[in-house]
Amino acid sequence: MAVHGPAMTDVARLAGVSHQTVSRVLNGHPNVREQTRLRVRAAIAELGYRPNGAARALVTGRSQVIGVVAQNTTLYGPASLLAALEQTAAEEGFAVSVGSVRDLDYRSISAAVERHLSHRVAGIVVIAPVESAGEALERLPKDVPLVTVDGDPRRPVPLVTVDQVAGARAATEHLLDAGHRTVWHVSGPSDWFDSVGRIEGWREALLAAGVDPPPLMQGDWSAASGYRCGQLLARMPEVTAVFTANDHLALGVLRALHEAGRRVPDEISMVGFDDVPEAAYFIPPLTTVRPDFDAVAQASIQLLLAQVESGTAGALRQTIAPSLVSRDSVAAPPRP
Amino acid sequence: MAVHGPAMTDVARLAGVSHQTVSRVLNGHPNVREQTRLRVRAAIAELGYRPNGAARALVTGRSQVIGVVAQNTTLYGPASLLAALEQTAAEEGFAVSVGSVRDLDYRSISAAVERHLSHRVAGIVVIAPVESAGEALERLPKDVPLVTVDGDPRRPVPLVTVDQVAGARAATEHLLDAGHRTVWHVSGPSDWFDSVGRIEGWREALLAAGVDPPPLMQGDWSAASGYRCGQLLARMPEVTAVFTANDHLALGVLRALHEAGRRVPDEISMVGFDDVPEAAYFIPPLTTVRPDFDAVAQASIQLLLAQVESGTAGALRQTIAPSLVSRDSVAAPPRP
DNA sequence: GTGCTCTATGTGAGCGCTAACACTACCCGG
DNA sequence: CCGGGTAGTGTTAGCGCTCACATAGAGCAC
To answer: pTM above the 0.85 mark?
Structure first.
């Protein structure tokens, strides 16, 4: 066990060349004769040689690994994003090391970043959806390529985000277009940028339509909190349209409305956000806003690798537009 | 950018000792004078020194990283497991590198394992819930600590699994205990061990109660497939109890029954599997079986580290019992 | 044939660390 | 007062690789 495999010199010996030539073949350098290249490849295959990433990382100062710092990777959004990041990174030849973290405060983020740095990762992606994370990021070492996802739009850090405002605006407009006088909103926690953006988009759409936004109902992303808000909404006969900040909130609201005997979409229309795979099988199937996690991941990795290669800490940002997925939870409001 | 931080010799110089003494302090060796230890720690703090994991990995032959190979990390089960693994590994001072993989065939798994090995991970956890993965695992290099999760119970590889059979048996018995004559089952894909185990537990419970199992309905974990099965079930008046292989299947069945006007639990009782966070907010709240992902993760890491330390490839296995979470989707069958 | 460029390959150093061993005090028993 | 432990520390080698440079040979112009 743990028998060390062959090293570059073993390959070199077998191929009858120097270790440097093997290195050149491995790294795709030019100026290696085709015949030599083939001999080296054959030797590599014969010995089952595997380059030692640690040695390479030691001498180059960085490994082919991207560190990701994330909080709650069990939630649908973060989990999808993480998977997409991993996929994209793999396509670029990078592995992904996850450092999940209980809280997104300075200490936790900093510790996770430290762990990544001590492994000499090539760059770090921080999924930083809350206020406290933003502060933490400004105090981090500046000398490492870093990209934030879903972070604070106001901070001068390379950032990739879903356009929450546009998504929420689309959702709200969709409900207004169906004929509703106004749209209620069940939001996520107020320290999440996602929440803030979705609230903003909802408000904007209402104001643009000349409607005064009704009071905000705040949840915490969970179906449980959606249920509690839903119980309140069910008691208010004037409510005919609800936009929830995610699909799980919608599920909770849906159940509360169901229990109260208020039918969706006949009496109340609903739109969610996230397009979780089950949303099409809610009762009724939920109209929702779908963020493109693959696009987010691709933009993030691209921004990160640009920094790695250029050696400059750019402060670019990129915004990914979400799309509305129309199902059966929206209808015209009932006649009074 | 990428300015190399201080190295061990810098710390040594500042503390007025040799680099080796610094190494000893870092690795908690005995035989370092308390006063020296403090001087070294002070120097480390002053310089902001961070040990270089790559250099350590190079000389020791392994890094403080655990590789995880997984397929569909967007599904609730795998995502939870991954998060739990990461958490547990972090507590033991290990980082987790994810290598997700499109298919669980030999080529894909082998490639992911290779990638991990070239980074000299300390060990590998493979989440291998399907048949094809099992075959792949037997052809892998034997000289690296490896643990499978949710893998093939018949293969001689260290394995940690949720006790699918017991969980399914509990679910089925719960329905029988409520007075149902028989229990129908909507399963997952037949090449998943999870599915197979859940089918087996369901069958066992029925046979033990002297009931002939009704025909199996096979889904693919998705709410969509649950919906299709649900439409069939709704048309059969003799169906009064359904056990689905996961909660999302249950969601689909629930909607099909709802559309057909068959009430749950009044006419039909249901039990799911997984206890996704939203299950409590289905209509009605779903009784389900909860696997303990934390326990699985802990057992896996423990088994893995035992191999790392002992240097032997043990073939232990560990089974984690799930628990039934009772909600409102089960009732006595209707009087005929 | 001399001097040049260009390609293909080899040589040596060193990345930052740990392991093995060497060394220096100092204490102890006889 | 000397042999022999035992704490505390230093010295050296080398893990497997890449980088910078050295070298060798081929091709070509004059």
So the answer is: yes
CB contacts, 8 Å: A64 with chain B: 119
Distance (Å, rounded) from C-alpha A218 to C-alpha A214? 12
Least confident of A160-174, A252-266, B68-82, B253-267: B68-82
Q: Report the distance separating Cα B278 and Cα B81, nearest Å.
A: 17
Write the CB contacts of A172 (distance below 8 Å, at least 6 apart in sequence). Answer: A183, A185, A201, A202, A205, A206, A243, A271
pLDDT of A81 = 92
**Averaging pLDDT over each range in B96-105, B133-142, B271-280, which range is the top one?**
B271-280
pLDDT classification of A281: cutoffs 50, 70, 90 = very high
- Helices of type H across chain B: 8-15, 19-26, 34-47, 53-60, 76-91, 106-118, 131-138, 164-177, 193-208, 223-234, 247-259, 293-310
Q: What whole-number distance in Å separates Cα of residue A286 and Cα of residue A281?
A: 8
The reply to whether A62 touches chain B by the CB within 8 Å rule is yes
Can you tell me the distance from the alpha carbon of B124 to that of B115, in angstroms, rounded to the nearest whole number? 11
- Confidence (pLDDT) at A2: 45
What value, to the nearest 5°, has the Cα angle with vertex A278 and ends A276 and A283? Answer: 120
Q: Using the beta-carbon criterion (under 8 Å), do A248 and B4 form an inter-chain contact? A: no
Closest chain A residue by Cα to residue B122: A2
Contact A119 B63 (CB under 8 A): yes
Confidence class for position B2, pLDDT limits 50, 70, 90 = very low
How much is the pLDDT for B66? 94
C-alpha B153 chain-centroid distance? 15
**Rounded average pLDDT over B162-190:** 97
A181 by Cβ neighbours in 10 Å (0-12 / 13-18 / 19+) ranks as: exposed
Which residue in the set B53, B73, B96 is minimally distant from A120, CB to CB?
A: B53
| Beta pairing partners, B83 | none
What local confidence, expressed as pLDDT, does residue B1 receive? 40
Q: Is the CB of A16 under 7 A from strand C?
A: yes
Which residues between 274 and 303 in chain B have a beta carbon less than 8 angstroms from any beta carbon of chain A? 277-278, 280-283
| CB of A252 less than 8 A from some CB of B | yes
Question: In this structure, is the CB of residue A18 within 7 Å of any atom belonging to strand C?
Answer: yes
Inter-chain CB proximity B223 and A98 less than 8 Å: no
The minimal CB distance from A98 to the residues B54, B86, B114 is found for B86
Report the range of poorest mean pLDDT among A283-292, A317-326, B129-138. Answer: B129-138
| Start-end of H helices in chain A | 8-15, 19-26, 34-47, 53-60, 76-91, 106-118, 131-138, 164-177, 193-208, 223-234, 247-259, 293-310
